[in-house]
Amino acid sequence: MVFRQPGMNRPTVRTAGLDYDRADVAYVLGLGPWTGWGELLGWLRGDGVSDPRLTPDRLRRLWQDAEAACGQGMALPDDPDRLWSELRQARTRRERS
After folding, report:
1. CA-to-CA distance for 11 and 70, rounded, in angstroms?
2. Burial class (CB in 10 A: 0-12, 13-18, 19+), 37
3. pLDDT of residue 97
């Protein structure tokens, strides 16, 4: 039985940093339009796993922060800079709890 892992057989396009950046957030947001966190999280869990633009570490962090933002009842902004900021705030709140 073969287990599929995020990033398996994916060329490494970016190796610097384990965390996503504003460009990653803008990229994912631009793939929408997303009507809510459910759609965005669905993409991250599905097609996002094999997207060559996102490294496994960046995808994992983005996924975790998006789940935290959704769980905290935050609205999904359509501005990449605002979304990046909201995701970081959600992470900070999650880590403090």
Report:
1. 30
2. middle
3. 82
